[in-house]
Structures are given as structure tokens and as C-alpha cells.
Amino acid sequence: MSVTHTRIIATGSYMPEKILTNDDLSKIVDTSDEWITTRTGIQERRIAAEGQATSDLASNAALRALEAAGMKADELDLIIVATVTPDMFFPSTACVVQKKIGATNAVCFDISAACSGFLYALQVARQFIGSGTRKNALVIGAEKLTSLVNWKDRNTCVLFGDGAGAAILKGVNESSTSRMLGSVMGSDGTLADLLKVPGGGSALPITQENAASRPNTIHMEGRETFKHAVTRMCQAAEQALAQSGYTANDVALVIPHQANARIITAIADRLGLPEEKMFMNVQRYGNTSAATIPVALDEAARAGRLKEGDVILLVAFGGGFTWASTVMIW
Ligand code: UT7
Predict the structure, then answer these.
(1) CA distances from 299 to 155, 187, 326 (A)
(2) Is 70 exceeded by the pLDDT of residue 124?
(3) Parallel/antiparallel/unpaired status of strands 311-318 and 253-256
(4) Quick one: average pLDDT of 90-101?
(5) Closest CA to 158 of 324, 298, 28, 314
(6) Which tens digit of pLDDT belongs to each residue from 151-169?
(7) For the packed helices 54-69 and 292-302, what is the interaxial angle rounded to 10 degrees?
(8) 75 falls in which pLDDT band (50, 70, 90)?
(9) Dist. CA 223 → ligand 1 center (Å)
(10) Are the beta carbons of 330 and 307 closer than 8 angstroms?
(11) Are 21 and 43 in contact (CB under 8 A)?
């Protein structure tokens, strides 16, 4: 078969069982359910169990995707994990997942692009498949973001959660209508300081002296990040649609990064789309960075909201800054 296109053949996701509600948070920091719900739309988020690492969340999501695809792990050619909360600096979380699921024949590596990570990874996998170098790929977005949260900082600790989503990609020929179409990716490192975990790496190792100021936790200029998120996601979505020969009116469902319900509403307004075309689960999971899009994709697929032939728009924005959008025919 001559491969010219790439499509998602199956999805899977895994969310940890433990729920942390807004009311629970209001006992830890000076916040309220009313503030969090009004400003973000988030009502609760999931927290990984004691001893559960990002690779455990990722492996569970991967096994569900494999089951949905009717594939065995040793049939996988490539595993890419998008994460900013790897199990450790190295080996890559993808290699740890490989071991846990028994994907003995896959080549494995991680991608670091924060909340845009899954869409970046999707594009990288697509290049491998389109070039014929690999026949299939398992792309995972997985995060244990609560490992980077400062539970004393109300500006950030209410926003994030843990979870993982996975998609299996395969090469298809011209006869397949289901395929990935236009894709846009962008980055602006000059704005890196607006959203980052400054410490714990080679630039600012954690020492006894600096540990108390928690440099190894998430720091965000929320208001500025919000503005850039809306602008970049709208631009990327419009560009990816134009590349694909579609307009917003053709889209059956948008799967946007889930950071804040107000961002999703603003994107719907600017693209002229009704809210029912915007998939939203931020109320249940908060922001799980690279995991939000694959988790939402899996929930939408399993809820029967993705029908064969539908035009689906994925769009993300995150630290870096980074942004990306992909149009696909389901
Ligand atoms: O995933 C990557 C991309 N991330 C994003 O896109 C996130 C973008 N940013 C946001 O979603 C919003 O900016 C936030 C939800 C983070 C914050 O909402 P905001 O409407 O931009 O609020 P703000 O940061 O301007 O803060 C407004 C007020 C401040 O009080 P003062 O200075 O007006 O007295 C904050 O101290 O709200 C206060 N505040 C809180 N109050 C109660 C901030 N966090 C909280 C809190 N509970 N948790």
C-alpha cells in the first residue's frame, strides 16, 4: 500500500480516580468555589494516586487505545509522549511506557511543548508515517501536573490536574477519506517567562537556599497568558482551516486545549461557532496540559460525537509560548 496520508484509528484515556473539588481547595488556600467556577469554569480535577507516575497514567491510556484499535503493543513502530512532567530527566517517559506495555518493537522519545505537546507530537508522528519510515505510531499526552503545583499559590494551584490521553496513528492511501489535513505550529520563546517552571533544571538547580521559594513549581502571568492564548489559538485554527480548504462553518466539533472555559468561549465567539460545537471537559479535569486534547478526543469519540467524515478541529496553546492546530476528517 502506498501511504500518502495519516489518520487516527483509535483513542484511549485514563484519569486518576481521586477527585479534588473547589471546596477542597478552599480549605487549603484563600479561594472559593464561586471564584474558581466564574473565572475558569473548573469544578474539580483529578489527582494521581500515591506512587503513580506520569508513565503509569500514560500506559493506562495507551492500553485502552490499543484495545480500541484491536492491536498488540509489539505491533507499535513508534511511541511519542508529550509531557512536561516526565517520570525523570532520562530515560524518556516514552521508554518507560514502552517497557510497561511491552511495545518491544517501537522507537520511543518525548516531546516538550507544554500544553501544545500533543499536537506537536501528532505532527512529528505524521512526518514519520507520511515519509514511510514508520507504519504506525502511538502518540500520548500525559501529565502529573500536581507534581509541579505550589499548593500555597492560589493563582495557579486551582487550575491544574493529572491525566493522560492517547491516539494510535496509521498510514492510509488516497482511498481513505479519514485523514489529517492542514496543520499549523508556532512558537515564541521571547515570551517564555510568562508561563514556566523556572527551577529544577540546569539553569536553576534546587538548593537548600532556594528550595523554600519553590522555583520548581508553575509560575504564570495569568492575564497576559490568557490574551496570547485566545489570539494564537484563533489564528492557528483559521490558518489550519484555510490550509485544508474549509471554513469554521464546515467544522462539526472543535477540540480545544482545556485551560479555561472563558478562553474556549472567546475562541467560539471569534470563529463564529456555537458553543455546542466546542468540546469542553475543563469543568471535570482542570488543565492537564498535554493531556487535555487527547483526553477530550477520546471522550468525544466514545460519546459518539465524532462521526466518520466529520471535519474536526484541534487547537492548543501553552508555555514556550507554543501553539498548534490540526484539521482532520474523522
Ligand atoms: O494552559 C496554558 C495556557 N494557560 C492559560 O491559558 C491560562 C490563562 N489565564 C487564565 O486562565 C486566567 O488569567 C486565570 C484563571 C489564571 C486568572 O483569571 P483572571 O480573571 O485573569 O484573574 P487575575 O489573575 O487577573 O486575578 C484577579 C483577582 C486578583 O485579585 P486582585 O489583585 O484583583 O485583588 C487575584 O489575586 O483574583 C485574585 N485571584 C484569586 N481569588 C480567589 C487569583 N487567583 C484566585 C483564586 N481565588 N484562586
Answers:
(1) 28, 28, 18
(2) yes
(3) parallel
(4) 98
(5) 28
(6) 999 999 999 999 999 999 9
(7) 30
(8) very high
(9) 7
(10) yes
(11) yes
CB 330 within 8 A of CB 308: yes
Residue located nearest, by CA, to atom 6 of ligand 1: 226
The domain made up of 179-329 has a fold known as: Peroxisomal Thiolase; Chain A, domain 1 (3.40.47)
Compute, in angstroms, the gap from residue 224 CA to the centroid of ligand 1: 10
Read off the amino acid at residue 201.
G
Place of cell 507504519: 135
Residue range(s) of every CATH 3.40.47.10 domain in the chain: 5-172, 179-329
| Confidence bin at 1 (pLDDT 50/70/90) | low
Would you tell me how many other CB atoms lie within 10 Å of the CB of residue 176? 14
Confidence bin at 4 (pLDDT 50/70/90): confident
Ligand 1 site-directed mutation target among 25, 150, 155, most atoms within 8 Å of CB: 155
Would you name the residues annotated as active-site residues? 115, 257, 287
Which atom in ligand 1 lies closest to the alpha carbon of residue 287? 1
Please tell me the distance from the alpha carbon of residue 83 to that of residue 222, in angstroms, as a whole number. Answer: 21
Class of domain 5-172: alpha beta
Element (H, E) at 301: helix 292-302
Q: How crowded is the C-beta side of 199, counted as CA atoms within 13 Å? A: 16
The pTM for the full model equals 0.97
Q: Starting from the edge strand earliest in sequence, which strands make up the sheet with 253-256, in order?
A: 179-187, 322-329, 311-318, 253-256
Nine-digit cell string for 166: 492517547
- 66-92 as b/e: b if 16+ CB within 10 A: bebbebebebbbbbbbbbbbbbeeebb
pLDDT digit string (tens) for 48-59? 999 999 999 999
Q: What is the dihedral of CA 305, 120, 268, 180, to 10 degrees?
A: -50
